[in-house]
Write the structure tokens for this entry.
Amino acid sequence: MDSEEHSQNQLSSLQRILSVTDIGLYRRICVMGIRVKIRKKIKQKNYYRELSIVKNKILFRTVSGSYTCNAKYIAEEIIRQKLPYELVWIVNGNVDKFEEDFPKEIRLVCAKTAQDFYEHATAKIWIDNERRNCYIQDGLFKRQEQRYIQTFHGSFGIKKTGPDRDLSATDMEIMEIDSKMIDYLTSNGTWTTAFLKRMFPGDGKILKFGHPRNDVFFKDGTKIRDKVCTKLNIAPSKNILLYAPTFRDDGTMCYSLDYGAVLSGLKGKFGGEWIALARVHPRFADLNGEIIPEGESIVNATWYSDMNELLVAADVTITDYSSSIYDFMLSAKPGFIYAEDVDKYEKMRGLYYPLESTPFPVARNNAQLLENIKKFDANAYAENVRLFLKSKGSVESGVASEKVVELIKKIIAEEEGA
């Protein structure tokens, strides 16, 4: 046996006695076959610390990585004003897959690549709608000269989230790190402001601007409706039902809407010919073909990235616990809740307030849903929406995007004057 082979055998023997393996946030130590997992402390890494920050670069990111939510409407306002900013968007996947959805003024970068970290390290402003868990785990923290605007993605959301649920020690640590980095948070009302203070317990300034994505409900939606109908190949004469339930933490699928009966019920109540857009939650998007039934009156809209454009196009929306319907109410169009598993969901996830306290008629089965459609009272619904928005201290007025852009201009102007 030569010396090299002997050394390899010694190393192999040592590894059987003691081995240390890094697995994400944990370090696994194996001693004589006994394994122990120890969580490592999250530490900031010095990614590109010597690089200069580009004073007019703005980096956008959303939960889905697609062109949607508040970030989209902030970016579009920047483009509308023809401001001389460098706009970078982090997408979840190959850039080529997303290019046709984005304006030419926005440069796309694939998430979790070296280029992504470079853009993060050199952008003056970060705009995000979700906690930055994956980046914090990799040690990417905001630099002192950077500014972080958190817009979140819910709107008077009814399902409990973040610190209002049981969080692990790791999740709590990430929440605290992320919260301390935030400079500004956008809110659409007093209820959301209180929620944000719990969700992001830091010193970030909360700005009651409204949600930029909801500005569309205060404008003429004809162009958006035409765009949706064209992309989904829907005749403009059709009335549109949007059915978009949320996810369940246990992976349960609750998509049991009786499409035929509901569309018939809507025709009987409101008149006209109806078609259903079914949208599977992004967490279940890969299963959309199994969940959504085929039919001449059913269109699979899961791949349509901008939920708010679908809401603008819809004449009626049905969901269960999704916050999207609390955006939709701003349109004054009928919304219904179909929640067949509400008792289970309340125990598993928890709700901030009862479904029955919302303006939306609540059904636990298809028969009740059809009855709610039949008995729908437009005047009572409009008053209930008004009272609900008042109770939540809503400040939505259709100019949130402009207000955020004014903040951005101020931040960049201060940098230029420094």
